[in-house]
Amino acid sequence: MAKKKKAMYELQEDETIIECLDRMKKDGYTPVRRIEKPVFEEKKINGKIEYVPVRQQIVFEGKSL
User: What is the C-alpha separation between 33 and 26, in angstroms, rounded?
Assistant: First the structure.
C-alpha cells in the first residue's frame, strides 16, 4: 500500500484563499488542515521594543489524491 504524500501551501501576498486552493487542486492535492500564524514586527514605542502583529500567515497542508 503506497503512502500518500503531504505538501504545504503558503498563501501568497497577492493571492486569495480560493486561488491557493485551486493551485493545490491543480497540483493534485486536497487540503486537510489550515494553519494560521501571526506575523509580528518589532517597533520602538516610548523607548521600549514591542512586538506588534502585522498580518496573518495562512498555510494549508494537503495530501495527494
Answer: 18
**Structural domain contains residue 34:** yes
Q: Which tens digit of pLDDT belongs to each residue from 6-34?
A: 899 999 999 999 999 999 999 999 999 99
At which residue does the C-alpha cell 494537503 appear?
A: 62
Range of the domain at 55: 6-64
Distance CA 62, CA 65 (A): 9
What is the DSSP annotation of 1-64? -PPPPEEEEEPPTT--HHHHHHHHHHTTEEEEEEEEEEEEEEEEETTEEEEEEEEEEEEEEEEE
Q: Provide the whole-model pTM.
A: 0.78
The answer to the question of residue 1 being in a domain is no
